[in-house]
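Entry 14. Structure prediction run on the chain below.
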Amino acid sequence: MKTPSVVISGDPIVCQDSTVILYATVRDTVPGVNVKYLWRVDGVDSVHQNTSVFNAQLPQRDYPYEISVVVDGGGACVVESNVISRSEERRVGKECRS
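Output returned:
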């Protein structure tokens, strides 16, 4: 049996009071078993975020959010994704508007 793996993808920019949407892609799970998701923001469990999509409104702040997801694929192990940092960014080509 292969060890499951999970990768997070989504927009790396958090604009002022914007909604953050991230996606967890899981590979090598046990066929027929429901995958369980637990998203974490800054190391704290986000109890209402238990699907493959993280969808939350995060306030703007001066330092990045660190978001990860823990996945139980029904096998012998539970895996945690890489930590992805989300922060406000001001650059040409990306504009945040309220």
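The two ends are 48 Å apart (CA to CA).
Filed with the rest of this week's runs.
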